[in-house]
Amino acid sequence: MSLRSELLMPAGSLEKLKVAVLYGADAVYLGTPDLSLRTKSDFSLEDVIEGVAFAHQNGVRVYLTLNLFAHNKDVAKLDTFIDTFIDTVKTVQPDGLIIADPGVFQYVRERAPGIPLHVSTQANVCSSLSVRFWQSQGADLVVLAREVSFEELTEIRRDCPDVRLEAFVHGAMCMTYSGRCLLSNFMCERGANQGNCANSCRWNYKLHLRLKDGTVQELVIDDSNREMFEFLLEEEVRPGELMPIVEDTRGSYILNSKDLCLLPKLDEYLKLGIDSLKVEGRNKSMYYVAVVARAYRMAIDAWQRDPDSWTPDPYMAELDRVPSRGYTTAFHDGRLTNLAHGYQHTGQVADVEFAGFVQDQDEEALIVDVRNRLDAGDVLEFVPPRSEDVIRLRLYEFEVVGRTERMDVMHPGTGLRLRIPFALFDQEESSTLQQRLPVLTVIRKEKPLTEAEFARVKMDRDVRRLETAGDVGANADTSRDQSLYQLHQLQLKDALRTEVARTEPKFIRLGNTGCCGKGCNGCLVFWHDPAYAKGRELMKEKKMGERLQRSAHLG
To answer: What residues contact 30, with CB distance under 8 A and at least 6 apart?
Structure first.
């Protein structure tokens, strides 16, 4: 058994694949809309071929995904998909194929026996028994469910030494059993296990209380009146639609999980010899891919050099520069605690934002694709892929490619590119900048936090100390952290109250309340309104997960 674990990064597009490779991934996983659980995948067949070739040229392994759960209506299409896929496999020779559905697993094994097969986390593998079953079916690697604790993982590693094991270490979590969510199906007819999850658990819900006489009021609930009310939820873009919700001893069934982050415990996984450490996020930005890959790459390499002196602190500081819902070690120590959930604030927060990336170079300058507004005086922070030190540069004006006049503000999406001469980096060795800041290097800038966001950041750090310290209240330090956590919860609640009053969201391009009405297969086309009958008929002709064109006239 090898003690060297691979860092497995997501690749939602060809560009992100190259970023993952540049920033230190040992392997990447990717798919096409027809075959994977990400119907928004930006990969075409040509992109897959180019991406796999690029990764292999750089010594990086590639795993392709076929991890949808097939319905009967999908099986008839599987022949066409497999024929196309087998042709692709023969061309690109991936290092593995990730499958969740047992029927699809058997189908591919029989039709393409030479492909290494990996069992997806969607298969809910939580025991040595299940690992051995999949191994007997021909699996080369088994991805364990997020619900598996480290103690269970240790037992599985001991019981199954001859099969490769993979564990998620970072990224968004679905608070249902291995992501088997029905909420998205119920709310907007988008199947989570066919790649179309609407992330309904993240939406902003408001609690209403209804008296038995039918009136709806805000009331303080205590033991004296708890049995007098029904509990109702209102989602922000469905005003007036009051949904009953029941809460039992295990809590509510609509939850907002913090993001998984096992970097504070990474040394335990490396010592155990888990073969693959997986990061979630094929729909995340190239900035997320770059910075998360860089942090874990540095952490893994540092442990390999000197495991006895290893500490997660410098790498956690880097992960804090990535927008998140707050981090949790989740099931690492067993069952979840309240610390794993975000009850008051569902947004992703960080004190920086993605400013852009190096799109090109010439002999004298970097050419930058701008991804967020830049103002004169902003400090840009370049994040080198092969160095632990960042490079900072303050710009007081912006030179635009193809223009003679300088600008004070640059906006994203305008097609304009920023030119930054190497001569402006007067604190750096200009002769090495081209090598240190290659194409696809990401750039960030400071982002001011609101009062609520600042309270959220403080609360998230309280959670991290509590989770890594063990039992709350076991000593004076954890008691103090628990008090701070409660204080910062109150500060967050107060800050949220003072923010702008809630208004009904409007579609940003057309101004339609609630939805654009364009038929993204998650909203109006599934209403029972006769006006959208055409939309429903058009959707029947689409393949699984495919959306209507934005220009489709539905009425």
So the answer is: 10, 11, 12, 17, 36, 41, 43, 48, 51, 62, 63, 64, 65, 282
Looking at residue 431, what is its pLDDT? 84
Q: Which of 6, 120, 1 is nearest to 55 (CA)?
A: 6
What backbone torsions phi and psi does residue 365 show, to the nearest 5 degrees? -155, 165
Reading the block at residue 538, the tokens are 């058009």
Q: What is the pLDDT of residue 515?
A: 43
Whether 303 shows a pLDDT value over 90: the answer reads: yes
Cα Rg of the chain, angstroms: 25
Q: Which residues of 478-516 are buried (b: 16+ CB within 10 A; e: fewer)?
A: beebbebbeebbebbeebeeeeeeeeeeeeeeeeeeebb
Three-state secondary structure readout of 87-120:
HHHHHHCCCEEEECCHHHHHHHHHHCCCCCEEEC
Residue 551, phi-psi category: left (phi > 0), alpha (psi -120 to 50), beta (remainder): alpha
User: What are the CA-CA distances from residue 301 to residues 266, 308, 383, 389, 409 (Å)?
Assistant: 12, 13, 18, 15, 40
φ and ψ of 498, to 5 deg: -85, -10
Helical ranges in 394-450 per DSSP H: 430-436
Q: What is the spatial distance between Cα 111 and Cα 86, in angstroms, rounded to a whole number?
A: 9
In DSSP terms, which residues pair with 7 in a beta bridge? Answer: 277
Say how far apart CA 470 and CA 477 lie, in whole Å.
Answer: 11
The CA-based angle 313-255-494, given to 5 degrees, is: 75
Structure tokens that stand for 460 in this block: 């998230």
Give the length of the chain.
555
Query: Would you say the pTM of this structure is higher than 0.90?
Result: no
Contacts of 540 (CB under 8 A, 6+ apart): none
Identify the band that residue 342 occupies on the pLDDT scale cut at 50, 70 and 90. Answer: confident
Q: Rounded distance, CA 491 to CA 489, Å?
A: 5
| Residue 302 confidence class, pLDDT cut points 50, 70, 90 | very high
Which helix or strand (DSSP H or E) is residue 65 part of?
strand 61-66
Straight-line distance from the first to the last Cα atom of the chain, in angstroms, rounded to the nearest whole number? 61
| Rounded-to-integer distance, Cα 188 and Cα 174, Å | 17
Cβ–Cβ under 8 Å, residues 312 and 17:
no
Pairing of strands 205-211, 216-217: antiparallel
Cα angle 91, 95, 99 (rounded to 5 degrees) comes to 100
State the Cα–Cα distance between residues 82 and 104, nearest whole angstrom. 10
With contact defined as beta carbons under 8 Å apart, do 274 and 1 qualify? no
- Residue written as tokens 């097939």? 70
**If DSSP codes are grouped into helix, strand and coil, which group holds residue 291?**
helix
Lowest-pLDDT choice from 81-95, 168-182, 235-249, 264-278: 235-249
Q: Which two tokens stand for residue 426?
A: 């007067």
Question: Three-state SS for 420?
Answer: strand
